[in-house]
Model the fold of this input.
Amino acid sequence: MLSAKTAQSTGELPSCNVLHAVTVRKVSLKMPPEAILEGLAGFFKLFSDKTRLGILWALSLSEMCVCDLSMLLKMKQPAISQHLKSLRQMRIVRTRREGKVIFYALDDDHIRAVLNTGLQHIDEPEGTIEVLS
Done:
């Protein structure tokens, strides 16, 4: 029997004692393409950093410039700017210029919903499982 790591590196499927072919086929028809999963992984990766989450949470409350974010999060401006660059590239935040100052805001309400869903998830009691539809 192949281990999962060996199977991945050789491209072979790991052998299993039980295979539910009907379930696998049904689910495989609803799986998004590999490129979509890759994009989604990149999207969620942006939420895996405490600083970026702080930036996103702040921007969910108000439009802010990099200097204000720097003061709020007690970090140097270049570090905040690097995070904002990543967030802009993934269309998580947008900018607005007013004279020499650039203001940042969440790109849309989907980001606020992701933050709120994550917060609800970590606040729910252990053992609570919701049924997917």
Q: What stands out?
A: Confidence is low (pLDDT under 50) at residues 1-7.
